[in-house]
Structure prediction request, 290 residues.
Amino acid sequence: MGPTRRTIRGASVLLLGLLGTLSLACATGGPARDASQDEPDSVSMQGLQIAADAYIAYQHADCETVYRLTQPQQLDAMQATELRYALRLVRGFCQELDGDQPTARLSYRQVIREAPPGSFAAADADERLRALDRLADDPEFARRLEQTALRPPVLPTPREASERSEALYPPLARAAGVEGFAVVEFGIRRNGQTTDPVVVDSEPPFVFEGTALRAVRSWRYRSKRQADPDERHMIRIVFQTATPVTLEEQAAGEADPADAPPSEAPGPAPIPGSHPRDAREALPPPAPAP
Prediction:
């Protein structure tokens, strides 16, 4: 039995508890019905197997497998649960990465249309539509994101946080063992409200971006009259299944830590610069030490 198959079987029990309802997890952290006592059947187990396979394939940049596992007719035949919405979502991720933005938009809109209020997948689909709209409305936005990833680190004036809600781990990603991070740049108003958060890097692309943005939008900092409203702050939110979601402060423009866990991810985003990668990739290798 290969490692992927073992991972899937090990995740099945957790998936049954997390994904057996119409709305397993509210995007704002609301409770969902406990499905741990539901009796699994062969159909639900098959769906869980497909879901874990699809998310593991996406983590390893295998969108061909994702497309095979998320055929529209197969998804239409599934029960209307968060499992189906999350599979439509990851199909949309692949379509966006492949440059087919019109089809990706259709996938995201279908998730939002089908899912009930509080669906995690629907909230993430809405975030992707907002990001695509911004890129379409502001041609310079992608270039600014790319420059943010490449510019020298700049330490902002420290601001004391008064409230930082934790970014929720996407349920299907957690159950499938998918780990990664999202780097969010944002401003802080003088009254302590965060403003204009944007993702400047993430791995795997899109998976953790929506939950990271929603968390940062809800954060509050201590008021500071002399604060520069144009100053930008940056934080790296790390998602690992064995530990709580962690926050790593970064200087604006700082490259990812060299000891970050490696992660295979799908290729570049469809719009050049819309999903910046590690700035070190654009630099020549360092000269050997004397």
Notes: The chain has ten helices and six strands. The longest helix spans residues 42-59. Residues 1-40, 253-290 have pLDDT under 50 and may be disordered.
